[in-house]
Design a protein that fits this description.
The chain has three domains: about 5-280, 2-enoyl-CoA Hydratase, Chain A, domain 1, CATH 3.90.226; about 315-495, Rossmann fold, CATH 3.40.50.720; about 500-645 and about 645-705, N-(1-d-carboxylethyl)-l-norvaline Dehydrogenase, domain 2, CATH 1.10.1040.50. Helices cover about 50% and strands about 10% of the residues. The protein is built from 30 helices and 20 strands. The strands form four sheets. Strands 13-12-11-14-15-16-17-18 form an eight-stranded mixed β-sheet, sandwiched between helices. Helix 13 crosses helix 14 (about 350-365) and helix 25 packs across helix 27 (about 670-675). The protein is globular and about 85 Å long. About 50% of the residues are buried.
Length: about 725
């Protein structure tokens, strides 16, 4: 057997040590399933063996789950729901054989046990966890459900009320929490796991699971008569449907498994689980989530776009110009990564205020028990607020994060340029201004790059790395090393007004403004966006960005010579009416914007309909959703055509992680590929006739559709 070793000691205790070759962590592969099946039969058929311990031959990790690439390739091969169910049943039958083989089996979990790895553990009769181990069923995060008994053994072990949040949330449990819930029988130092498991096998073993014993009842009850049924199922289904807008099928499928399966004998329940698993695996949502949020995100986090041949680097000292919200946020995440930060602003008071963001965030973390006072003090000591440019001496990287004004950016860039080392690279955090033009104010354009962070910086995982016309590969490599150092996900794009994310995101809230101007009810606009899966409506987004800033950016772009689009005069008219005539510039303007902001929450401004009268006939919700999603996807295609976006994976990651495009789609280009490019083009042409030329697909896109092409390569090739 290539993926595990099977040994038996003098006391008749077998040890099954899993060690999948060529993998940093164990994953459930077809080979491992075959080897484990053989080991179980050896265990069951050898009268001299009293019991077994399943553990890992890899230190610090048990089994990380199934091989996601195998499942993605199953979709690429056109797997049916029935075939997907059979894939689930193969492992499910194996684990059922394990727990009913007549021999007691203990599981020594020495590290991470996720997904299928945790399902293996649940099929064992005794579980002991290392103190730093974690267990969980995260399948919901990639559009699936546990397909080897997770939705059935966990509720039978701890009850539906406790199992539901674990299955629906997808978050791992720490060892102490697993013990408290009754998922684990013991927690111990890693070095003691094998001994504890062996002791149980020699002294008090039991080869029968609780659910196989006569008279067993699920803790807390099951079905409509259970005391928790109204919360777990009736209310739970409604809440889940509302939170997902039914765009994500996995949470509702998990609830169905919990309800149906717990009313049935375990063997029948496992078949129900497999049926739902097959439906999810054969659907596009799981494919999209697995490809974008697992395979492609992991590749981006490992710096797949980093130029070869450039030595790895680390930023030891970072300069930040501008201590506003963005600069302060960058300072906070950089200091958290161990970097010394010079936080510079025009006054000492403003620089100190920027540092205060870190104080506030760390204080909250301290109150929640997520850090210690010593760590707080150390991190705060790394941030040096100042007004003196001389303090930038010795910086490896300087990031400009001042107001979106060419003159202000030019001034601070030149002042920093005069004092920083010639070995330092310089980055701008601009979200709209072309990097090439900003680099003209720096003495070494090859060392100038864009690093576009998203607000709030401490929570948003993405950094858009923008290559100017003269940016060198070494600068790109060093910038990406820094992004990895602060534990963010980078995407790489080429220079253009608005780059990629800002350019696409602008189409979203501008489409909302155009719908308002046409007389579409504001509530319909906002609700359609949320129903499509966007985290916030386009009018609410405009208020957050501020209408005044949007107006200034558009007017500045026009002043810079950007050609106006057909819809731009309409957008400008709405913004000028709101900002200049009605004095409503957005949330931070004091007077509100499209929304009013009472002491708690927000409400659409009731007077909107007076200034933007409602049309006699309103569109249906599906049409409104389509407009908001299609315009973003189409603009992404234009970015690909223009060479702004070089990799489809970066486009999808930027869309989901940066601007909140619905995760169920897999991103803007996956959305097009899922629909199919030919029908997407046809629908865009219809939208163009009805709403304007902004929806008109280019000749390039039409030709791509005629050739039957997709944006992403076949999944098997991508994997």
């Amino acid at each position: 057997m290539k993926t595990l070793t099977y040994t038996v000691d003098a006391d008749g205790i077998a040890t099954i040590a899993i060690d999948v070759p060529g993998r940093p962590m164990n994953v459930i592969t077809p080979e491992l399933q075959n080897d484990l099946a053989a080991a179980v039969e050896s265990l069951a058929g050898d009268a001299a063996v009293k019991g077994a311990i399943i553990t890992s031959g890899k230190p610090g990790a048990f089994i990380a789950g199934a091989d996601i690439k195998d499942m993605v390739n199953s979709f690429a091969a056109g797997i049916s729901a029935k075939q997907g169910a059979e894939l689930s049943q193969k492992l499910s039958r194996l684990l059922r054989r394990l727990e009913t083989c007549g021999k007691p089996v203990a599981c020594a979990i020495n590290g991470v046990a996720l997904g299928g790895g945790f399902e293996v553990a649940l099929a064992c009769h005794y579980r002991v966890l290392a103190q730093d181990a974690s267990v969980g069923l995260p399948e919901v995060n990639i559009g699936l459900l546990p397909g080897a008994g997770g939705t059935q053994r966990l509720p039978r072990l701890i009850g539906i009320e406790k199992a539901g949040p674990i299955l629906l949330g997808g978050q791992p449990l720490k060892a102490a929490d697993a013990l408290k819930l009754g998922v684990a029988h013991a927690v111990a130092p890693a070095a003691e796991l094998h001994g504890l498991a062996r002791k149980w096998l020699l002294e008090t073993p039991k080869a029968v699971q609780p659910w196989d014993e006569k008279g067993y009842r699920i803790p807390g009850g099951a079905g409509p008569a259970a005391s928790h049924a109204a919360i777990s199922f009736t209310m739970g289904t409604a809440v889940t449907a509302k939170s997902t807008q039914r765009n994500l099928p996995a949470p509702l499928a998990i609830l169905s498994c919990l309800y149906e399966g717990t009313l049935l004998p375990i063997d029948t329940a496992l078949k129900v689980e497999s049926k739902y698993f097959g439906q999810l695996l054969s659907g596009p949502v799981a494919r999209n989530l697995m490809r974008t949020m697992f395979i492609n995100k992991n590749a981006a986090d490992k710096l797949a776009r980093r130029p070869d041949g450039v030595p790895a680097s680390k930023v030891k000292k970072l300069g930040i110009l501008g201590a506003g919200m963005m600069g302060a946020g960058i300072a906070q995440v950089s200091a958290a990564a161990g970097i010394e930060v010079v936080l510079l602003d025009s006054t000492q008071e403003m620089a100190e205020k920027g540092k205060q963001l870190s104080v506030t965030l760390l204080q909250k973390a301290l109150e929640r028990g997520k850090t210690t006072q010593a760590k707080v003090d150390t991190q705060l000591e790394r941030i040096w607020p100042t007004i003196d440019y001389a303090d930038l001496a010795g910086c490896d990287l300087v990031i400009e994060a001042v107001f979106e004004s060419r003159s202000v950016k030019a001034e601070v860039t030149q002042r920093a340029d005069a004092v920083i080392p010639k070995t330092a690279i310089f980055a701008s955090n601009t979200s709209t201004l072309p990097i090439t033009s900003l680099a003209a104010t720096f003495s070494r354009p090859a060392d100038f790059i864009g690093l576009h962070f998203f607000s709030p910086v401490d929570k948003m995982p993405l950094v858009e790395v923008i290559m100017g016309r003269d940016t060198g590969p070494a600068t790109l490599a060093r910038a990406m090393d820094y992004v990895a150092q602060i534990r963010k996900t980078p995407i790489v794009v080429n220079d253009s007004p608005g780059f990629y994310t800002s350019r696409v995101f602008a189409t979203y809230f501008q489409e909302g403004i155009l719908m308002l101007e046409e007389g579409v009810a504001p509530a319909l606009v906002e609700n359609a966006a949320r129903m499509a899966g966007m985290p916030i409506g386009p009018l609410a987004v405009s208020d957050e960005v501020t209408l005044e800033l949007q107006l200034k950016v558009i007017e500045q772009n026009l002043a810079d010579g950007q050609a106006p689009t057909a819809q731009l005069p309409r957008i400008l008219q709405v913004l000028r009416t709101m900002v200049r005539d009605l004095k409503r510039s957005g949330r931070r303007g004091g007077g509100g914007g499209f929304y009013d902001y009472p002491a708690e929450g927000k409400i659409l401004w009731p007077a909107l309909s007076q200034h933007f009268p409602l049309a006699a006939q309103q569109p249906d919700v599906e049409e409104a959703k389509k407009r908001l999603l299609y315009i973003q996807a189409l603009e992404t295609a234009r970015c690909v055509e223009a060479g702004v976006v070089m990799e489809p994976a970066d486009a999808d990651l930027g869309a989901i992680l940066g601007i909140g495009f619905p995760a169920w789609t897999g991103g803007t280009l996956s959305f097009i590929d899922t629909l199919g490019l030919p029908p997407f083009v046809v629908e865009c042409e219809r939208l163009a006739v009805q709403y304007g030329p902004r929806f008109q697909p280019s000749d390039w896109l039409r030709a791509k559709a005629r050739r039957g092409e997709t944006f992403h390569p076949p999944l098997s090739a991508a994997a």
